[in-house]
Design a protein that fits this description.
Elements (H helix, E strand, L loop, with lengths): L4 E4 L1 H5 L7 E2 H4 L10 E4 L13 E5 L8 H9 L5 E5 L5 H8 L3 E5 L1 H15 L24 H13 L6 E5 L6 H10 L8 E5 L5 H9 L16 H4 L4 E5 L6 H13 L1 E2 L8 E2 L3 E6 L3 H6 L5 H7 L3 E3 L10 H15 L6 E2 L1 H9 L5 H15 L4 E2 L1 H9 L5 H4 L13 H15 L4 H8 L3 H10 L11
Helix pairs in contact: 13-15, 14-16, 15-16, 18-19, 19-20
Length: 463
Amino acid sequence: MPSKVLIFGERLFSCLPAGGVQDIEKSGRQTPISKEEIAIYRTPVVPEVECTAETAYVDLEKAEFNRPEFLLQLAKSFNKLRIVGIAEFSSTEETARVAQMGVAEIVNKEQYLTRIEAFVNCGKKKAEKGEPVNTSIFSSASLIGHSPRIAEIKKMVEHLSEVDYPNAIIFGETGTGKDLLAKVLHYSGVRKDRNFIEVNCSAIPDELFESELFGHKKGAFTDAKNDKTGLFEFASDGTIFLDEIGNLTIPAQAKLLKILESRKLRALGTVEETDINVRVLAATNINLEQAVYQRRFREDLLFRLNLIAIHLPPLRERKEDIPDLARHNFNFYCTLYNRQTFSINDGAIGALQNHSWPGNIRELRNVMERAVLLATSDEITQRQITDAIKNGRVTARERKKIMIEIPDQGITLKAIERQIIAEILNMVGWNRTQAAQLLGISRARLRRIMDENGLANKRQSSD
């Protein structure tokens, strides 16, 4: 079976799990070996036409892969190749530039690894005789944890697995696993044998939104050199996952709403409309009701998406799941880095449970990977976990400074108050007397503020 995924770049190859990967240059061939599913290119060599790839990951941080002539040739060589750029940071201008050369979206290295992990674990189970993909990695069991809220979400997933619903939306803070839940909803449902297309709405400039999602005909605009299949059409009869939908502009929201209401698609440059049958899953870390009130999000679009709403809790609200999550990620990285003899002791697990996890599961994964990589013995201890969490940074308590993260969509004063109170409490080990002294307020007032911001039960007071 020809390769389904092409990877361009030494950096992207070096971080891959072993197995199921073919290195084109080492094999001395121009086309993938028949039984492999991933083909690696260390230099900007476009595969021959008979290579039927579906996705290409390109390291945009390397100049040789960021050249217009390479990207344009790669995009023209395949009918339905989806090109995904890998870069830790990309400006709006750079995103627009590479999009004109055929790059559908830009993701960071961690998101790339997550996708490759999912592909390898699922795709390599496919038999040569055309047996269906084993999608058990995206069953409800892949939602790790036994806390009440996670158990409730698992039940909902299992209930929805037999229902062909049109839309759903997932709410949750950054790093809570919204993309994983979207894949579980798709691959455990009635559309599991159809395409699942993931779109990062923040990575698509407003001027390219319509072309990327709905497609265009040759000559529809200045740089439209060829017909382009839109992502909605590519997801036909399957699922399209619109991540970070809260960051769409109002004009883009209006175009999306029209598609959801009419279930008809019209590509740029044509007057013909075609019927589409696509399930739309959306996700956001923004309070969309507040965004509606602030006129940053269309209320009618929210109503349309909010047919089924799932709220993923932050990790700090499901600390009983941390041991299971930690061991799962620990085992994964031990296998990835060939350190199967490693173990993790109870003290290390306790240190993980005592952390507040502002970055949620994504931060936990990074900590576990760092601990495995930097371990000096076969047993991961509390000290090593503490060092991995700190990662060489000076803590807020040590520097006596608080950093406020302001997202692109802005932040409310209430949210800033919550961040400051939480940071102060963490700084003093949740000693309310010390926190009140630092804030210059009484303990009673601090307690009221904590109650208002949902912080009262986050951690027991030490005073």
